[in-house]
Amino acid sequence: MSFNTGNYDHAASMFAHDGVLMAPLRETAHGQKSVERLLREMGEGGYSDLRLETTRIDYSGDMAMELGRFSAITCMPDGTRVPERGKYMKVWRRLGAWLIVADCWNRTAIEVSQQAA
């Protein structure tokens, strides 16, 4: 996965030129360059080991919706590694290639995440 290897430009290239990334507690990133900056900020800020599990895909014509679960690790300044779990939704559009037009995710409460593990 491009994000985990620090290839933020490659990860952002999966978005349409006007695609949006809506991350928790962050301003919405509009467009590939803005998405790349947000991904770089998150990666360099300690967010790592991102894993996605797609649970559903629906499509009609040139639009598709992807739902799933994610897990990641946040490395705190003191070196503590904090696990994170949650759910996500992506909207894709076929613009020659399939590109992300909207990506949004939300964390699951830590107590619920630990019970599910």
Keywords, separated by commas or semicolons:
117 residues; alpha+beta; Nuclear Transport Factor 2, Chain: A
N→C terminal distance: 23 Å
Tell me the number of strands. 6
Low-confidence parts: none
Shape: globular
Largest sheet: number of strands, sense, barrel closure: 6 strands, mixed
Level-2 CATH architecture: Roll
Number of H/I helices: 3
* Secondary structure category: alpha+beta
Rounded Rg: 15 Å
What does this structure look like?
By secondary structure, the chain is of the alpha+beta class. It has one domain: Nuclear Transport Factor 2, Chain: A (Roll), CATH 3.10.450.50. It has three helices and six strands, in the order αββαββββα. It has helices at residues 8-12, 32-44, 110-116; strands at residues 15-22, 29-30, 47-60, 63-75, 81-95, 97-107. Strands 2-1-6-5-4-3 form a six-stranded mixed beta sheet, with helices on one face. A hairpin with a 6-residue loop joins strand 1 and strand 2 (29-30). The protein is globular, with a radius of gyration of 15 Å. The chain starts with 7 loop residues before the first helix and ends with a helix. The relative contact order is 0.18. The model has no long low-confidence stretch (mean pLDDT 92).
